[in-house]
Amino acid sequence: MYKPLSQSNIPKAKLIKRGKVRDIYEVDGYLLILATDRISAFDVVLPNPIPYKGYVLNQISVFWFKFLKDIVENHFITDDVNLFPEVFKESYDQVVYRSMLVKKTRPLPVECIVRGYISGSAWKDYKRSGSVCGVKLPEGLRESDKLNEPIFTPSTKAETGHDENITFEKVVDLIGKELAEKVRDLSLEIYAKAEKYARERGIIIADTKFEFGLDENDNLILIDEVLTPDSSRFWPLSEYEPGKSQPSFDKQYVRDYLESLNWDKQPPAPELPEEVVKKTSEKYLEAYRLLTGEDLLKKIKV
């Protein structure tokens, strides 16, 4: 019987981080990343879990890690619970479908953001300065316009609060010129392949965030989550109309609802109405179906 999971509890495994959405455990030199059904908006975790959200986030990442492996190695080992260390098998109901075993890496202190369309904070920056993260853009762009070519707009990784947009030169200062150029070029290459694939299936990937780390041999690999509705803006291609904000398959629907309230965006967050929770869950499941061609609930026999 499925129950939304707001917080995992695996007694014999070492919990090393509880993020806004994911819980990370360490055992036998590996990490287990577990996607809960928590949802955050404006850097505040909301009180309602979103049914199946953790399943969608985990399964979409698994899909993309396999799809993109010809471009760059990644930290994914397996999502087969039968191959997990024993301590996780004892918590089968918590880990199944919503977790993956991954290699430990040294994460780079940079979030690698690629934008193919102008939206969100980039749109605000553009209106103010005509550029985004030091990248000068053409005059006269409208909100949600497709850019002539995707741009790399990195940010710092903030443990708490908001990430800070930075220039490419700042990335060079942080990790060195050779590595900075490598993560920039890889990010743009990954985005191009994923964007083409998704567009053919009715989804525009307007922008997305990648993270990279160095493995024990100092190889650069793709880590974290990849091209999920939490790390990307997914728009339905059939409804795309530049000049305004777009309907989406991500949590923008929740943000829009919260913006309609008299809430100061500080904890505690307000409860979401049942209808908003249901609609959000449906959006996540629909994104999975369009990208993979599978009905997730049939796949997991819920």
UniProtKB/TrEMBL annotation:
Keywords: ATP-binding, Ligase, Nucleotide-binding, Purine biosynthesis. GO terms for molecular function: ATP binding; phosphoribosylaminoimidazolesuccinocarboxamide synthase activity. Its EC number is 6.3.2.6. Residues 16-268 form the SAICAR synthetase/ADE2 N-terminal domain. It catalyses: 5-amino-1-(5-phospho-D-ribosyl)imidazole-4-carboxylate + L-aspartate + ATP = (2S)-2-[5-amino-1-(5-phospho-beta-D-ribosyl)imidazole-4-carboxamido]succinate + ADP + phosphate + 2 H(+). One of its GO terms (biological process) is 'de novo' IMP biosynthetic process. It is an enzyme of class 6 (ligase). InterPro entries: SAICAR_synt/ADE2_N (IPR028923), SAICAR_synth (IPR001636), SAICAR_synthetase_CS (IPR018236). Pathway: Purine metabolism; IMP biosynthesis via de novo pathway; 5-amino-1-(5-phospho-D-ribosyl)imidazole-4-carboxamide from 5-amino-1-(5-phospho-D-ribosyl)imidazole-4-carboxylate: step 1/2. One of its GO terms (cellular component) is cytoplasm. Belongs to the SAICAR synthetase family. NCBIfam families: PRK13961.1 (NF010568), purC (TIGR00081). This is Phosphoribosylaminoimidazole-succinocarboxamide synthase. It comes from Candidatus Kryptonium thompsonii.
